[in-house]
Design goal:
Helix content: 25-40%
Strand order of the largest sheet: 1-2-12-9-14-7-6-3
Bound molecules: N-oxalylglycine, nickel (II) ion
Distance between the termini: 37 Å
Shape: globular
Number of strands: 16
Radius of gyration: 19 Å
Structural class: alpha+beta
């Protein structure tokens, strides 16, 4: 039997067959690929083009727009997952917030192409993520708009351009991971990957490759939906392996709520035989503790299981 991450056509997302396929994928895998998502293929191509151009710039050019402790948007070339160095470079774009949080843009002519494409793709992801979240709400027995509350203007969703340079194994050593194994901490992730394999998900005691498909986005549920669903859906462990001869590019969009959002298992998931498995969690607290682990070795990184009842 071939076991692979399900591919679901969501051109008619509201029909019961699509909803059912999504429910099954969320229970079995926590991951699925969607076709029929409605985002223009030309936009996806342009996004990879500007991403390649961005990372191809000289290091000092990229470092001019480095993120810092006050403003996380911009370029970064080292990140820690579970206290291990990841083999990647990233660029993050998220909403402006007052004077402090501002997008950082590359300079010169690149910005003229880069900014509109990044903004357009971000807007497309926001609406697709909202549709998927509504579908999952229905599947969890609440009204489609029930989960939407935290994702209005003050949401903290962001887009990340990932560049995983090719990586030769060190003599006698292991090749580092592009991203070490982890779960995504927010609600949902929409991932665009190029044609270079690398993303793997853990299921049934082993790692499965998520086959690159030009026509699809990869969707995975994060810790927040795991909590809402009271463990009916699991935020699945995943990682990125590096390749000795080929670079890889990917673009995740992380759907995250506003900082003052508190989440807990939905009443529809709580039954006499299945009490709430998590206490209420404030996104600000969880996000802040998790982000601290991305920058520095702070000992054991916070995991959602710390909130189990
Ligand atoms: C992530 C992630 C996968 C990829 O950035 O959280 O899991 O293929 N990325 O880049
Ligand atoms: Ni991830």
């Amino acid at each position: 039997m071939i076991e692979t991450v399900p591919v679901i056509d969501i051109a008619e997302l509201d029909n019961p067959a699509s909803l059912d396929a999504i429910d099954r994928a969320c229970r079995d895998w926590g991951f699925f690929q969607v076709t029929g998502h409605g985002i223009e293929p030309a936009l996806l191509r342009n996004l990879f083009d500007v991403s390649r151009e961005f990372f191809a710039q000289p290091a000092e050019e990229k470092r001019r727009i480095r993120r810092d402790a006050d403003n996380p948007w911009g370029y970064y070339d080292r990140e820690l997952t579970k206290n291990r160095q990841d083999w990647k470079e990233i660029y993050d774009f998220g909403p402006a917030d007052g004077d402090q949080l501002k997008p950082r843009w590359p300079g010169g002519y690149l910005r003229l192409r880069f900014e509109p494409v990044v903004r357009a793709y971000y807007a497309n992801c926001r609406s697709l993520a909202a549709r998927l979240l509504a579908a999952m709400a229905s599947n969890l027995g609440v009204a489609p708009e029930h989960l939407a509350g935290g994702f209005d203007d003050a949401h903290t969703s962001f887009l990340r351009l990932n560049y995983y340079p090719r990586c030769m194994a060190k003599a006698g050593g292991e090749r580092p991971f592009g991203v070490g194994e982890h779960t995504d901490s927010g609600a949902l992730t929409l991932l665009l990957q190029d044609d270079q394999p690398g993303l793997e998900v853990f299921r049934g005691g082993r790692w499965h490759l998520v086959e690159p498909r030009q026509d699809a986005l990869v969707i995975n549920i994060g810790d927040m939906i795991q909590v809402w669903s009271n463990d009916r859906y699991r935020a699945t462990l995943h990682r990125v392996v590096t390749n000795p001869s080929r670079d890889r590019y990917s673009v995740p969009f992380f759907l995250n709520p506003s900082y003052d959002t508190t989440y807990a298992p939905l009443p529809t998931t709580i039954t006499p035989g299945c009490p709430a498995r998590y206490r209420p969690i404030e996104w600000r607290e969880f996000r802040t503790l998790r982000a601290a682990g991305d920058y520095a070795d702070i000992g054991e990184e916070i995991q959602i299981t710390h909130y189990r009842t």
